[in-house]
Design brief:
Elements: H1 3-67, H2 76-82, H3 86-114, H4 123-140, H5 153-163, H6 178-187, H7 189-193, H8 196-207, H9 213-230
Helix pairs in contact: 1-3, 1-9, 2-3, 2-8, 3-5, 3-8, 4-9
């Protein structure tokens, strides 16, 4: 091989190496962009779902405090499920189960679409996933006196799967809305079967909330910690930070 051919070969090898390196860094940047996009899009939806669930838990817990003092009137479940109309009771029962199911749906969406990305390179993402795991542990915890709204890990995954809208695709998934959820409860017996126990749990909570208070307090506290991670500057939820042990106005 003459000198010119050798130089040409070296240039070709170097060019291939540079192209490979540029391709690698381009893929890294693309993966990083996908990660930020998915976490930004899904993180906001997950934060709202966590907020809705913690709000309902707050209303149930605060309602129990109100019920303990007859002079203050009736708490949330007592007012709308025990003493309310049949329509009000049905709404409270279904909407309570819905906000739990919707949260699990967004957790499952996040797990499906973000799990293949390199979460280890983002400290925040890693903390978010760890906090989601803590919430899952709280939801599955076995209590000797109360297991209302308890779901084991596999059940959490199953409910999450059921809540994912079938028309979604990676990066653009969404959960069933409340109207869709109610329609499927009425029209799909297999779907409804997954939620029958949870719906009955809401009635059991209305009959006697006290035994469930420690468990529900723990879940609500863990949800607030997740929201703090997803909304650290309190731009989405500036005034909601309500401790579960402080009576106050129902949040809706």
């Amino acid at each position: 091989m003459d000198a010119l051919s050798l130089v040409s070969a070296i240039v070709a090898v170097c060019g291939a190496a540079v192209a490979g390196l540029l391709g690698y860094w381009q893929q890294r940047r693309l993966r990083s962009w996908e990660q930020r996009t998915y976490m930004d899009r899904y993180g906001a939806s997950l934060a709202w779902a966590a907020f809705d669930l913690q709000t309902r838990l707050y209303n149930i817990l605060n309602g129990h405090v109100v019920d303990e003092d007859p002079a203050r009137g009736s708490g949330f479940l007592t007012s709308f499920l025990t003493r309310g109309t049949a329509r009000e009771a049905d709404f409270v029962r279904r909407s309570t189960v819905f906000v739990l199911a919707e949260y699990l749906g967004w957790v499952e969406i996040l797990r499906r679409d973000v799990q293949f990305l390199d979460l280890g390179r983002s400290r925040l993402n890693t903390r978010v996933m760890l906090q989601i795991s803590r919430i899952g542990a709280s939801l599955s915890a076995i209590d000797p006196v109360s297991n209302e709204l308890r779901l084991f890990r596999a059940q959490q995954r199953a409910v999450g799967e059921l809540m994912i809208h079938p028309d979604g695709e990676p990066g653009r998934r969404r959960c069933l809305g409340y109207a869709e959820f109610c329609a499927k409860l009425e029209d799909d017996s297999d779907f409804a079967g997954w939620f029958a126990v949870m719906l009955a749990d809401v009635d059991r909570l209305a009959a006697n909330t006290a035994p469930a208070v420690p468990r529900l307090q723990d879940v609500q506290t863990q949800l607030i910690a997740l929201i703090d991670l997803l909304d650290p500057k309190k731009t989405r939820f500036p005034q909601f930070r309500l401790p579960f042990d402080r009576p106050g106005r129902a949040l809706g």
